[in-house]
């Protein structure tokens, strides 16, 4: 029999009735409306929805970058509301990895220095075996002394993935990780993310606009107007595209491509 403690341990991230209201009084926007969602250990979830449906806000709340207006977020069993800003920063550093569309590598640092940066920031001694295994997994063993500017887009994203994995976080949040990559490079990066879930038992939550990218996930959750608008398990790209069409997403998508979103912040 499972105790509630056991059940909680199998959840990497949990949101309970999370709302996020931006602005004040007469100009309020409810970006998330009492959203409840759970992400089990070693699962890959894609988050989709029309432009403005709350995907980025969800990601930022779930990752402890933005505090919800109400409701609770739990990461690895810790309720983020109980942490002050310093504790929250430490939890993010130790338990959460980020992968962005724009890679966000430091241009003056080599591949190896970029990958080990989170460990240095945390004052942790790098585990050489772990680093070697992560570097091999992402196929960068012969590029460790290179600068990001000497790498292709796909290679740079693989550095960012390695950087997100070296701290062995409870969960990795990816914000449009293949948005800047061509189709073939994107599929190599998505296969790598899939492997990190299947082989390294990582938990991955990925915001994407791309039904093909979403089809690599175990589950797709759809947001509309800041609320859960359904989910698909073992998704195919066609089924995801059909659901997005029903949500009226593609008009917004075209606008999105005309004015791409940029991700901010390094971690
Ligand atoms: N800092 C902010 N201040 C005020 N309103 C905001 C802020 N950030 C987001 N919003 C609003 O909250 C809603 C949800 O925005 P969010 O960026 O989370 O959506 P999204 O689904 O990620 O959109 P996109 O796919 O276009 O990136 C939108 O109506 C947006 O205008």
UniProtKB/TrEMBL annotation:
Keywords: ATP-binding, Nucleotide-binding, Transport. Residues 13-250 form the ABC transporter domain. One of its GO terms (cellular component) is plasma membrane. It comes from the Bacteria. The keyword Iron does not apply. PROSITE patterns: ABC_TRANSPORTER_1, ABC_TRANSPORTER_2. GO terms for molecular function: ATP binding; ATP hydrolysis activity; transmembrane transporter activity. InterPro entries: AAA+_ATPase, ABC_transporter-like_ATP-bd, ABC_transporter-like_CS, ABC_transpr_LolD-like, MacB-like_ATP-bd, P-loop_NTPase. Pfam families: ABC_tran. This is ABC transporter related protein. It comes from Streptomyces pratensis (strain ATCC 33331 / IAF-45CD).
